[in-house]
Amino acid sequence: MTSIQQIDTVEHAAATRDHPQPYRELGLKDDEYQRIRDILGRRPTDAELAMYSVMWSEHCSYKSSKVHLRYFGETTTPQMREKMLAGIGENAGVVDVGDGWAVTFKVESHNHPSYVEPYQGAATGVGGIVRDILAMGARPLAVMDPLRFGPADAPDTRRVLPGVVAGIGGYGNCLGLPNIGGEVVFDPSYAGNPLVNALCVGAMRVEDLHLAHATGVGNKIILFGARTGLDGIGGVSVLASDTFSGEETGPGRKKLPSVQVGDPFTEKVLIECCLELFREGLVVGIQDLGGAGLSCATSELASAGDGGMRVELDRVPLRAEGMTPAEILSSESQERMCAVVRPSDVDAFMRVCDRWEVTATEIGEVTEGDRLVITWHGETVVDVPPRTVAHQGPVYRRPVQRPTDQDALRANIPDALPRPSTPDDLRDTVLRMAASPNLCSRRWVTQQYDHYVRGGTVLAQPADAGMIRIDETTGRGVAVSTDCNGRYVRLDPYAGTQLALAEAYRNVAVTGATPVAVTNCLNFGSPEDPGVMWQFEQAVRGLADGCVALGIPVTGGNVSFYNQTGSTAILPTPVVGVLGVIDDVRRRIPTGIGGQAGDALLLLGETRDEFGGSEWAHVVHGHLGGRPPAVDMAREKLLAEILVAGSRDGMVSAAHDLSEGGLAQALVEAVLIDETGCRIAPPDGVDLFVWLFSESAGRVLVTVPRTEEPRFTDMCTMRGLPWTRIGVVDPDARALEIQGVGSIGVAELRETWEGTLPALFD
Amino acid sequence: MSRIGVIIFPGTLDDVDAARAVRHAGAEAVALWHADADLRGVDAVVVPGGFSYGDYLRAGAIARFAPVMGEVVAAAKRGMPVLGICNGFQVLCEAGLLPGALTRNASLHFVCRDQWLRVENTATVWSTRFEPGAEILVPLKSGEGCYVADQHTLDELEGEGRVVFRYLLDSGGGTGSPNGSRNDIAGITDARGRVVGLMPHPEHAIDPLTGPTDDGLGLFLSVLDAVGAAGALAEAVSGR
After folding, report:
1. What is the percent of chain A where pLDDT is above 90?
2. To which CATH superfamily is domain A29-61+210-243+260-395 assigned?
3. Among A32, A197, A379, A629, who pairs with A521 as Cys (CB 3.0-4.6 Å)?
4. What was the pLDDT predicted at B237?
5. What is chain B written as a DSSP string?
């Protein structure tokens, strides 16, 4: 162990103004360091430097994205805001879903840690987002994970993917939260920079909403949960900032583990303990400890409250000897929460923690004034205005420049790529696509996740959206989907992001739920690259404008920059999550077409010759160019209204969104989910290849009982939604039969669709 | 109304599901806290699934020492019906109420899937509602579900008909285990047919809305038949 030097106190710092400090190694620029000196009127102490550096990192401060993210707020109308109980800036957005229920949901990235250490990186990603939801006062109900990896057959993907999946399962399963969906996408751009995003959704009674405010002078600050150790120190600032080399020189100690280690058992107990504390009314304000640990929790609680805060850092329970104040403040040890408690409630608070065997320690109190003062054995090591740490970090308006290759990319249209035309070629293409890594069954992944626990899961993978019942009496529930096609976004960041929004929205609507809110996790390359900033700006505008068109608000989000290997950025990947509400989950629409012989299969929407960024161009030709499919938000809204009406009146027995791989892929999945069969008769005169594989947006495959067909098609016609009758369910056929292509038996389809991932990863 | 206890250890996860299954079957679910050596007068006990104490030492190894488990073991010896599901099965094995042990799945992966089982013994208090040889579909979700025992124990279990549930490859198909279990054993009983443990989750299969089927309800209805009849008899004998 390194010897502990004399602790750097405020007094000492004031007396040694010119003492050189390693701010660059902590990710601070010269001018940022100078700004800290200006704020404090002296050099920062080691502990203060640790706090500022981690809180001013890109990950915590949003310094490059802030100027763009404002656009979300500027475009959200009072009408869109109507059902929002909490929005951007809180731990997670909260929406009123009716019957006195509020639902909160959020996605966060844990990309870099998951590349360095796949199991722990992914596991602690789940743990972190679950605590965010818990900090709103909600019971976490379900998780899902949008994932992106390098090529499926790359050796490093074999290292990263199994570890990430095992980590998500290992943590989430042990926590007792059903995993109800997510994404697994492969693309060479994610080699060396996988994306591991984690979403959690939770519910509470409207009156139980808790916010992270340290209010009421004299109220106590209680740290509870796991002890504070040396793990994850510097993780946020080193990993999410501009260096990946891992020089772990911080004040005091070297060679610290940079990825946190998760303990899901402690988190499960912490969840139940917190929920009991909420029920008993013992919490004034609460904040989880995630990235930036105590630095973040204390400065955010204090700056959101109405006073200052005093913290005795030497009271923090530690699991390592000789930790310095700076280390304690930056530690990202998992499974910790920080609560503000009235003095009269402290004993009751401690009793609840005792019952759950959760370590809880009073570490400070809310004070008069507006300073955050942290002491160490009686000496002041931090004395700062908390807002300057938490909210008044640097803000950059980075240069924005449309990439020079964008025009060439757009001009490289896929129209000249050789297309299959004979029945045999088309049949082969259906199978080749179904077996391709991005379209094949995700069962190898999802069967490592418990989707049954708590007994509220109504829909889970491979359904288009996950659906959870939140009220057993009324049957009220929510549906969630996340989506993003990075190739579309690469071709046109504005339209591509709207396509991600449209797909997530449609995936929720096909279950019969009404979409009500949007969250996001914006994964991009380096913000110092003007081309990346252009993608980012376009994506934010596309998403915000799309939300206005749909009339639903963005309630929160997360930005992850520096996702690149060398100078090559990942495909821009703004993952969009949409939350929908259904008043009774018993009327949910399933994804598989079912086994009722003679039920009609209808294709809603229009199919155009659109192959820019398509899965077919990618799989068959390795091509990326042209324009992504056209997006029409008004059409998506109409489609959703029709589906909700169809669900409410029992007119639709199944619905499946069309996306990557087009109609052919949707049919393969819809047949296999229910182990059934169907006969498809393409309309006269269509180009079979385009009809089967185009990725035109705004389309859904629906199954309609024979008796409901006239009523349903009349409704579509009346409301101006194009529809085509394309075939019937025929379970006895046990095959997908397409006129002009041929018949593919269920057994062959299943083997093709399900064989790919086991062959690669078992 | 019959009262069925549901034990909660730190890290128990499927207690809400077990309690819901008990209610669906028509009984009152009574939460039993691990730290209280008190069964609160229940007629039967369910030890639900989860990761008690994080399963960090070995699944179920710490839970068996909980104060409530002493009461469960004593009550089981008196003949109280006890059902261990998944982690609860592991706890019952660790506590010596059932023979054998559960080890890591042969695939080394956690597996969550809908699993066909054949009911091999319909004489236990937890399985009388099933037809002999009935095939049921219930969720299986475990990382350490591989049932092992020495050959002598296996012979004894088979010889005495104490295998209650066996894994099937498919409905109507042959037996076959998804986790490497010896003899494709999914669940077993004690010699008296009153303590049953199984890895799959009948409590997740009580409503086709949230589970694959409602086949799992059969276990809970069975035990209510047993304790309901016993309760009626006791009442008649005591002249109440």
Report:
1. 86
2. PurM-like C-terminal domain (3.90.650.10)
3. A197
4. 62
5. --EEEEEE-TTB-THHHHHHHHHHHT-EEEEEETT----TT-SEEEE--B-GGGG-SSTTTTGGGSHHHHHHHHHHHTT--EEEETHHHHHHHHTTSSSSEEE--TTSS-EEEEEEEEE----STTTTTSPTT-EEEEEEEESS-EEE--HHHHHHHHHTT-EEEEEBSSTTS-B--SS--GGGEEEEE-TTS-EEEESS-GGG-S-TTTSS-STTHHHHHHHHHHHHHHHHHHHHHTT-
